[in-house]
Amino acid sequence: MTAKSGYTFVELLVVVTILLILASAVLPLAQVTSQRQREAELRRDLRDIRTAIDKFKDAVDTGQIPTTELAPANEGYPPDLQTLVDGVAAANDATGRKLKYLRRIPIDPMTSSDDWGLRSYQDKPDSTSWGSQNVFDVYTKSGGTGLDGTKYRDW
Predict the structure, then answer these.
(1) Digit-coded pLDDT (tens) for 49-100
(2) Measured over all CA atoms, what is the biggest interatomic distance in the chain, rounded to whole angstroms?
(3) Backbone dihedral region of 6: left (phi > 0), alpha (psi from -120 to 50 degrees) or beta?
(4) pTM above 0.85, yes or no
(5) ∠ CA 73-76-77 to the nearest 5 degrees?
(6) What angle do CA 52, 58, 61 make, to 5 degrees?
(7) With left for phi above 0 and alpha for psi between -120 and 50, is residue 74 left, alpha or beta?
(8) Beta carbons within 10 angstroms of residue 81's beta carbon
(9) Beta strand 137-139 with 88-89: parallel, antiparallel or unpaired?
(10) Rounded distance, CA 146 to CA 59, Å?
């Protein structure tokens, strides 16, 4: 009698079952890791934009940016996010140098868009519509909830 080498059907079935169990355990972990990375990117982008807004306000307050460049009701904040990218002419600078605060408007990792929710200084803190006077704060327009249980738009 000659013995044939190879695997039996039962052995293959056991191996496939074990692989399926392992894969089903790894998939949720990969999804949580992906969400955690997008949340970290959202926090970083919000911090970058808010820092740029604060630096713009500080430049207005210290006289580096002339208030004649801005609308009277803007309280020293930028009129829109694009102004942080395009820059504003520096006060008392004959070279035409512009003060720029962002290289580009970041893409919101939750909505995959550069359309951020904006609040002006005159808006109420929980307002969901922008008053268009200036940009005092930004938030994501995503309606999702983070891993910590808070809504992304409250970050």
Answers:
(1) 999 999 999 999 898 888 776 666 678 899 999 999 999 888 777 777 889 9
(2) 101
(3) left
(4) no
(5) 95
(6) 145
(7) alpha
(8) 22
(9) unpaired
(10) 34
